[in-house]
Structures are given as C-alpha cells and as structure tokens.
Amino acid sequence: MDTLNVLLMGFISIVIVNNLVFTKFLGICPYLGVSGRIDMAFGMGMAVTFVVTLSGTLTWLIDHLILIGTPLEVTRYVCFILVIAGAVQLVEMYLRKFFPSLYESFGIFLPLITTNCAILGMCLFINLWGTESLLEAVVLSFGAGIGFTMAICIMAGIRENLNMADVPKCLKGAPITLITAGILAMAFMGFAGMIR
Amino acid sequence: MTGKSEAKTTAYRQTLLAGLWRENPVLRLLLGMCPTLAVTAAVKPAFTMGCCVIFVLVCSNIIVSLMRDLLKPHLRILMFTLTIATFVTIADLFLKAFVPAMSETLGPYVPLIIVNCIIICRAEACASKNRIVISIIDAVGMGIGFTVTLCILAGIRELLSTGKIFEMQLMPEAFVPWAAMSMPVGAFITLGLMLGLVNKVTNKEA
User: Fold this and answer.
1) Backbone angles phi, psi at A6, to 5 degrees
2) Does A75 contact chain B (CB < 8 Å)?
C-alpha cells in the first residue's frame, strides 16, 4: 500500500506539480514547433511518452547496474545520449515495419525526438532525485511523457484559436506563443506545493 | 593577393557579426530556448552558462570541421552528439571541481547543453561544410550572441525580481520586488516580449 501511495504521488507530482514544460523548461523547442495542430501535437506527445519511458528505464538500469561506484561514471552523459538515440532508432524501425501509416504521419518529428531536451532532462532528473527503485523510475518517466503530452495538447488547442485572434503584428508567431505559455505556467503555479 | 585576403577578412567579419544580430541564435533562429528560459533568473548563472556554451560550441565545431570528410550521412547526427557529449562532460566536471556552488545552481542544465539545438545546428549548418577557421569564428560569434542575449534577459529578470544586479542595489528603496519574475512565468513572458521588440525593430529596418 505504501509503495502504491509513493508511486501515485510521484506520478501526479510529475504530471501536474512539476510539469516538465512549465516548471523545468524542458522540451520547449518541439513545444513551440509542433503545437500548431492538435492531432500532430498528440502524436508527438505519444511518441515522446514512449521514448521517455523506454530511455528513462534503460538509463536507470545502466546507471545502477554498471556506472555507479565505478570510474566509468564520467561517461554518464555519453551513455545516456547513446541510449536515447538507440531508443529513438528502435521506435522508428518498429513503427516503419508494423505501423507504416503512423510512421508516415510522424515524419520528421521522430528522429528529432533524439534532441528533445525533455528526454535527456528526465533521465538526468531521475538520477538527480535519487530514485530508489526501478518501478519508481518507470512510473516517473511515464508520467513525464504524459505531462509533456498534456502541456503540448493544451497549447495546441489554444493556438488553433489564437490564429483567429487579432494579435499585434510584431508579436505574431513565437512571441505570443511564449506569452501564452507564461500565462499557462502561471495557472500551473497554482498546483505548486500541493505535493512535495 | 591583397584583394583575396581582404575578401577573406570581410567573410570572417560577416560570419562573426551574423551570430551577434542577423542570425542571433535565440532572438532570430529561436534555438536553444530551454537553457535560455531556465538559467536566466539571475545574471551570474546566465553568464556561466553562456561561457560553457561558447566552450562546447568552439571545441565541437573544431572537431566536426576536422572530421567533416569522414562523416557518413546517416551516422552524422550521432557523431555530432557524441562529440558534443564529450565536451559537455569536460565542462561539467570543470564546473564541479572549481565552482561547485555554481554547478549546484545550474544543476542538470549543464548536461542538457548536449541536446541544445544551437550546437547541433552549427555543427550541421557550418562546421560540417566549412574549413576550420570559419567554423571557429562562427562558433565564437554564435556563442557570444547567445551569451549576450542570455545576460540581457537575466539582467531584466534579476532587476525586476530583486531590484539588484550583481548584489548592487539599482532600484529605489520603495521598489516592491516582482516575485513572479524569478519564476517560470517571468521567463516566458519576458522572452516573449523581447522577441516582439526585436521583431518590431527588424521590421522597421527592412
């Protein structure tokens, strides 16, 4: 029961209270680039969720089974980025073979996930927060993906309406998106302190 | 001969200046937003971050430029990332050893330089096509452009959130600090307004 509680709290915390996009500024680039249409945003979110769960788990395993306590610890970042690049490649191959239509719709965004800071950031945060068990690492990284999906979908919904709005010319595009994100971040600040 | 060297110098100057304004990575190309937003609550960490990025950018551009003829197209990005990761590790260990407090403040954002789009973009767009001198100059220009932007943003935020810059009281006593400026909200909105301002200035120029 206790473990379940910890896991549930961790999950809610990473999705809402410590949302990667709004409190840690991770994954801003795809957040600004892809959030134009809601279906694409959702697809991107799903792909990121899958990759972040996979690479979060793998990097935790590598960290605890191989790196910690050996001089190899200096190669941590190199290992992490290799794992992420490998995971993305794996997802790409798998999708191309078994779900060609989904693969087509992701297009260029799939390889770009490698350089999504949300993923490397999450692997580093798991390491930094001193996550104790494998299960916790899995749940946290899955939650990070869900949080990212939620943020990018909210933003896409707003931006679809923003196209109709009368925005000053110099603020069109990225500036107004950032300001909107700021207001959203303010809304999410209301959750701060709810857990941990 | 002199004409040739003159043309060269102009090309160098053009490359250097491009990074500062015309192709400023943050303000014009919208690259490297994550660290820009995350470390700009105060000027000092912003400056340190800028220096780290300059170091990594110059080193990785040198290496990528040296190995540009050996790169296979499909392994290109992987080679870039591994090169960058190596130099980021060096920068991170250096910070940990000599300025541990700063390393603590920056936290995971130093290793996150690995996936900073600026560095991969410059490796791809410049260093993998050009000779070593141009690559170095490009890296320096871009790096300085990034650092200056970061410092300006951090300056605005620090001034409004504490009334001080570098421990110096700049605002009058009666000034009430805007706590929100040091939080994510302040980062997003300040950068948004800054981009708007830059757009306005450029539209006037054109």
Assistant:
1) -60, -45
2) yes
Partners of A179 on chain B (C-beta within 8 Å) are 188-189, 192-193
What is the model's pTM? 0.86
Q: How many residues does chain B have?
A: 206
Give the number of domains in chain A.
1
Residues B142 and B21: beta-carbon distance below 8 Å: no
Chain position carrying tokens 């935790």: A60
The answer to whether ipTM exceeds 0.85 is no
Q: Which range marks the domain in which residue A180 is found?
A: 19-189
Q: Tell if the CB–CB gap between B185 and A82 is shorter than 8 Å.
A: no
- Tell me what pLDDT residue B179 has: 79
Angle at B124 (CA atoms; ends B119, B128), nearest 5 degrees: 115
B39-70: pLDDT as tens digits: 888 888 899 999 999 999 999 999 999 988 88
Integer CA distances (angstroms), B40 to A115, A169, A193, in order: 22, 27, 23
Break chain B into its structural domains and give their ranges.
Answer: 39-205
